């Protein structure tokens, strides 16, 4: 495996994995464009900054000789309608699975994996709304897996499905209160990981007991405290992390697998003289307060490191006219492109500049797409 200029392992060509997806089209003599071609051109177009099928078709036509150097283009470039029709019909669960195999085969172990959801704007129908849940390696800034919440009924089962796609041995998993479930803690520990899970009123009795205990102990200065301060653009935020590893008082302790600590984070924000304070609560299998505090700060950073980039740089929220399945598959290709930029790119360039340079420089494009110069 080659190395990037950042010293980390570069990602290999994902098409070798994604092209194993079952082609939804009828396999006959009228099938002009192999699925490998469609996926490769679509991914490359997104990597180079093109966000709709017409633009990707035009980009591919202008670069047909380059694509023909490694693809069989006997029948030319697929039309924009072909791209759209195939993406609407591709099995999103299969493409998610092969994406995860690709990234987890190439990526090293990760100390911290954040689980977080992102809502993608709907289109013509309410059932086209898309809520994606991703596993995000905060230090490498790589998306390790993606799945979507089909409806409220399977919100609780989403995280176990996502975790089954990745190797979490030695990793600490952080997740919002939606995913704070007893079976989830059991699965994380069984797969060799640790957890820090947000606790809210979806477990009302447990939340009331934990918050009362931590508030009382904290206010009476009975807990170990770790404090951090961050200042940025007129905002001063002080976070005080407090932990209790004495849990004999907690009746529900044994229902949560390897629950070793309950944690409180008190955040005080001063924005141009306006001060607000908030307390949040967590269940954790870890007991080192500094590690817990540092890990939670990495989880909160996902908003800027992933969501902002996907919305602003890749324009994910602007694709409101697409059907749900097509939108989910494009989102997967977008995250593949972002991973390639993060792992194979130049640390001195922004994501936007990577896209521009890839569109104009074939050698740079090959480095991103294949993890090496051809």
Automatic annotation (TrEMBL):
Residues 16-103 form the H repeat-associated protein N-terminal domain. Pfam families: DDE_Tnp_1, DDE_Tnp_1_assoc. It comes from the Bacteria. InterPro entries: ISAs1_transpos (IPR047647), Transposase_11 (IPR002559), Transposase_11-like (IPR051698), YbfD_N (IPR032806). Residues 109-339 form the Transposase IS4-like domain. This is ISAs1 family transposase. It comes from Ciceribacter thiooxidans.
């Amino acid at each position: 495996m080659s190395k990037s200029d950042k010293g980390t392992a570069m990602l290999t060509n994902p098409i070798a994995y994604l092209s194993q997806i079952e082609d939804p089209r009828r396999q006959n003599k009228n099938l002009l464009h192999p699925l490998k071609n469609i996926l490769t051109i679509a991914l490359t177009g997104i990597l180079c900054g093109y966000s709709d099928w017409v633009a990707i078709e035009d980009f591919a036509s202008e670069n047909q000789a380059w694509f023909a150097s490694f693809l069989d283009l006997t029948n030319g470039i697929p039309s924009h309608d072909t791209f759209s029709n195939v993406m609407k019909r591709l099995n999103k669960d299969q493409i998610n699975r092969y994406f995860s195999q690709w990234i987890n085969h190439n990526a090293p172990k990760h100390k911290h994996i954040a689980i977080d959801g992102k809502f993608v704007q709907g289109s013509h129908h309410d059932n086209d709304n898309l809520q994606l849940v991703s596993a995000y390696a905060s230090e490498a800034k790589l998306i390790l897996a993606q799945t979507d919440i089909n409806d409220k009924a399977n919100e609780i089962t989403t995280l176990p499905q996502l975790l089954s796609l990745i190797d979490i041995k030695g990793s600490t998993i952080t997740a919002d209160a939606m995913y704070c479930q007893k079976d989830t803690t059991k699965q994380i520990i069984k797969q060799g990981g640790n957890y820090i899970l947000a606790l809210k009123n979806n477990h009302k009795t447990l939340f009331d007991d934990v918050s009362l205990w931590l508030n009382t102990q904290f206010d009476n200065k009975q807990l170990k405290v770790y404090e951090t301060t961050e200042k940025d653009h007129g905002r001063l935020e002080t976070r005080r992390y407090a932990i209790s590893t004495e849990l004999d008082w907690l009746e529900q302790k044994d229902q949560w697998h390897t629950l070793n600590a309950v944690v409180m984070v008190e955040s005080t924000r001063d924005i141009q003289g306006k001060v607000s304070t908030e307390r949040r609560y967590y269940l954790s299998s870890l007991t080192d307060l500094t590690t817990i505090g540092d890990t939670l700060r990495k989880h909160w950073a996902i908003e800027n490191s992933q969501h902002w980039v996907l919305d602003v740089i890749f324009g994910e929220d602007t694709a409101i006219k697409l059907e749900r399945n097509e939108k989910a598959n494009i989102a997967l290709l977008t995250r593949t492109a972002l991973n390639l930029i993060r792992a194979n790119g130049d640390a001195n360039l922004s994501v936007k500049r990577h896209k521009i340079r890839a569109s104009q420089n074939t050698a740079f494009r090959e480095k991103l797409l294949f993890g090496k110069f051809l």
